[in-house]
Here is the input.
Amino acid sequence: MLELLVLQLLLHSTNDDLTLKFKEIVLAADIVEYNGAVI
Here is the structure.
């Protein structure tokens, strides 16, 4: 759900730096969810 919102922001974003930050946030969130599932 959160990722869909982020993707929508990415699609409407024209700032490359902002896009990279969002991608980092999504990647970090995926890692946290993965580690949480493993633990």
